Amino acid sequence: MPQTKAEQQAYRTAWRKANWEKKTEEEKEAWRAARRGKYIPVGQPGNNAVKQKDMPPERKRLKAGYDLKKKYGLTILQFEEMSAAQFDRCKICQRNAEEVYNAKKRLCVDHCHVTNKIRGLLCADCNRVLGLVRDDDTILQKAIEYLINSRKDEEK
Fold first, then answer.
1. Which of 32, 53, 117, 123 is most buried (CB neighbours < 10 A)?
2. How far, in Å, are 13, 16, 36 from residue 2 at the CA level?
3. How far apart are CA 149 and CA 145, in angstroms?
């Protein structure tokens, strides 16, 4: 019997292909009917999912708590304690979350992609910068040198 999810999925797919022709037309139609509407886009009739922007605030908070727990092992209270310890400011640029977003958005959780250890909370811009340089400090150092040298060239 297959052990991993991928092996199980491959096994089920192969079994369905091998046994599909053995089914009667009624069984095939029942199978199709059970799956109709399964992939209806969010917001279309028949799909009860709600877009994040349309969620009520209490549901957004619950979803955010679920996402934090799933991705980083943090509860919403731990996140709020971290945010308060940083005075709701990005750990790099020190901008306030509300200054950056002009809304009630939260800071991003920055973590090491190797160890999965949480390093702190960053604004989306600073978090994106670290992601774009793949957390490589030599690339960041070269970028700093590049900016310093280009300023010197401009002053000449």
1. 123
2. 12, 15, 28
3. 6
